[in-house]
Amino acid sequence: MAVHNTIQGVSTRDKIIKLGRDFIQKIGYHSFRYQLIAKELNIKNAAVHHYFPAKEDLGVAVIEKDRSDFLDLIEAGKEQSPREKTEVLLTMYANYCLSGKNLCIIGATTSIYSELPPKMEKAANEYIETIESWLIDVLREGHQNGEFRFEETPENLAAVWISTLPGALQVAQAKGAGFFRGVLEQLRRTLLPA
To answer: What is the mean pLDDT of residues 162-180?
Structure first.
């Protein structure tokens, strides 16, 4: 196991992953370069390559970190009502929009899916499955307990949400935050409170 340099309790490796995620969410996977991370951290480009020999390696680490953060988020809210759980997801996306992140990691990877290296494709699929399975369970629970009322199957409604959120985040670049807030409100309406 490699020893990672730490500054103020955060390893260089973790800082690289965080910056990689930030750049991917702001400018996309193909547009970001190791030089951007090296400059931001005031390290040599070779130092980034030390931790992630290929860009694909960093891409996988970013996807896995985002998925891990999502799992931590849903674990922290496991006692919440289904409506509160859906609000956590909507708030996560609203925060992306407000912080100038034009892409979520799902949107960043699916928009270039046919060009992804195999390891990144696998990691992206696992992440999408994680969100989809969780959302289906939340929608089913809310429907069964009467908190939600909708005609579709939980699977179909989850597909609408998973498709809409990343796309709306991208369109908000041109249409603005008000547009994005409107989309979030439309998603809330798909749940039609009982």
So the answer is: 94
